[in-house]
Amino acid sequence: MKRYLLAVTALSLVSACGSGVFTEDGTDNGGGGADGGETGPTGFIAPDNIADRLDSVIYNPGNPATGDPATLEVTGLPFDDGDLSAEYTRDASLDVPGFQAFTAQAESTTPGEETRHYTVLVREQDGVLVATAGSGFAGTFFGGANFARENTYSKPRNEDLTGGVPIEDGPTVGNVLYTGTYAGVINVTTDGGPGIRRIVRTSGDVSVTADFTDNEVQEGLITGRQFEDPVLLRDNDDNPISLPAGTPLDDMRFRPTALESDGTFTGTLTDLDDNGIGSFAGAFAGERAPAVGGVIRAQGHIEALDDAAGPTIFENGAFTATR
Question: What is the pTM of this model?
Answer without folding.
Answer: 0.85
